[in-house]
Amino acid sequence: MTATAVAYSRILLKLSGEALAGDKGQGSVFDFERVGRFCDEIKEVADMGVSVGLVIGGGNIVRGSQLSKNGMDRVTADYMGMLGTVINALALQDVLENIGVHTRVMTAIRMESVAEPYIRRRAIRHLEKGRLIIFAAGTGNPFFSTDTAGVLRALEIEAQVILKATNVDGIYTGDPKKDPTATFIPELTFQEAIVKNYAVMDANAFGLCKANQLPIIVFNINQPGAITRVLKGERVGTVVR
Ligand code: UDP
To answer: ∠126-147-191 over CA atoms, to 5°?
Structure first.
């Protein structure tokens, strides 16, 4: 299948750090079986001719807000969080390259002996050459999240959609784990999400999507083939636009 036959030819996939840790609980930073499964899916998408930017979180290693609640300086804790995303990016790169996906890691904090610095025009060139980019170190700034980094990079590389991978099927009227009456919402507008206070992404990231009319698809990464189905134009997860 060529890129012309798919619903989107350039996507930004946002994967949380916790998705890499699996269910093995604390102390286990990576569940490589799970990481392998995600990477197989990502390869399938790359093989469809779709250009893929991947923003990886760091919640399986460090969450700045959590450490600062425990008494650490917030800015230091956030830099630690950003470094955590670089560790995740290198793990993903290794697994993806092992299955034949050409990748580049680009970091928002310079560390040239580890990975390339993020330079927008160079990133676009990599995509044009068919390389998958893993964007690491978030936005490079404390007080932000990797969701915001995801939206920022999506806009910069002119992705047509941001796919936010989560552990639930999409957006519900309440927390499905706590509220049995919560119902699934297949589609909503930016405005509805704001009015009804649905947590799609953090407020900064969401505001950036809304201001730039960048559609968000929130889907369950544990559903096999979900990303491929989105690209085939099937209804998967919740679409916010
Ligand atoms: N972070 C940051 N600036 C950014 C992106 C991330 O300071 O632009 C820090 C922040 O401390 C955050 C941590 O890196 O808690 C890990 O990122 P995030 O919590 O977004 O990861 P995820 O929840 O997606 O795993």
So the answer is: 115
Residue nearest to atom 16 of ligand 1 (CA): 58
Q: pTM for the full model? A: 0.94
170 lines ligand 1 (CB under 6 A): no
| Residue 86, both tokens | 């670089």
Expressed in angstroms, the distance from the first to the final Cα of the chain is 27
**Residue for token pair 């999507």:** 209
Spatial CB neighbours of 58, under 8 Å, sequence gap ≥ 6: 17, 81, 82, 83, 84, 85, 87, 88, 138, 146
Cβ(16) – ligand 1 distance below 6 Å:
yes
Chain segment 125-164, per-residue pLDDT in tens: 999 999 999 999 999 999 999 999 999 999 999 999 999 9
